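Hey forum,

I'm writing up a methods section and want to include a predicted complex as supplementary material. The small molecule is adenosine-5'-triphosphate. I've pasted the protein sequence and the SMILES. Can someone with a working setup run it? I'll credit the forum in the acknowledgements.
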Amino acid sequence: MLQIKQLQVLRDQKLLKYDFQLQQGKTLAVQGLSGVGKSTLLQVIAGFVAAEKGSVLWHGQSLLELPVEQRPVSYLFQQNNLFEHLSVIQNLMLGFADDTDQDQLLDKLVNAAIELQVDKQLEKKPTELSGGQRQRIAIIRTLLRPEPIILLDEPFAELDPTTRSLATQWVADIAKQQNKTILMVTHQSEDVQQLADEILQLQ
Ligand SMILES: Nc1ncnc2c1ncn2[C@@H]1O[C@H](COP(=O)(O)OP(=O)(O)OP(=O)(O)O)[C@@H](O)[C@H]1O
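Reply by user p_vandermeer:
Happy to help. Structure tokens for the complex are below, copy them as they are.
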């Protein structure tokens, strides 16, 4: 269970407030007007922005004191974050423990790339990819990492409707298989219908 208890964040001289909980394995769509604090919520959970008050608990453990790299969180930023000097497949291989079986991992990543129709891009550098291809690679990277909490900030924004639907379904399948707990910022009602168990409407 992820519990956000009376969380307060000061941003741009505004006090943003959050209070909700989400069961493990569920997907929450975070919605609301531009500037209401959707990205800020993800940034606080991930540890990039500090809170004034309140708590963020994962299975009862407080996350706010933990440094970014120790939080059980995998985060897809609004500007998807790939290292430009590495190939796509090298980007995908980052962030797994040293004892991970490399052949199995490669298999898993290649299969995901085939499903999301970006397998031809694996040896390329991120700069050679279109926006939609980068976004699918970033989705694969974020979802297949080991962390149980997945934060997605407009993950499908650059995808055409067909590819978007493919990617949404893939995320739903992985989330179910791996019992991921997902917070997803989106403006699209199709994403909500396909993926979300619950909606948090920020005001
Ligand atoms: N890096 C920052 N430094 C200071 N204030 C910020 C920063 N990023 C956002 N803000 C402010 O925090 C508030 C919430 O912004 P946030 O990006 O969380 O909104 P959002 O709901 O995700 O918006 P959008 O839908 O436009 O992405 C806004 O008033 C914004 O101006």
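Some notes you might quote in the supplement: The beta strands are 2-11, 14-22, 27-31, 53-58, 61-62, 73-76, 149-153, 181-185, 198-201. Residues 4 and 121 are 38 Å apart (CA to CA).
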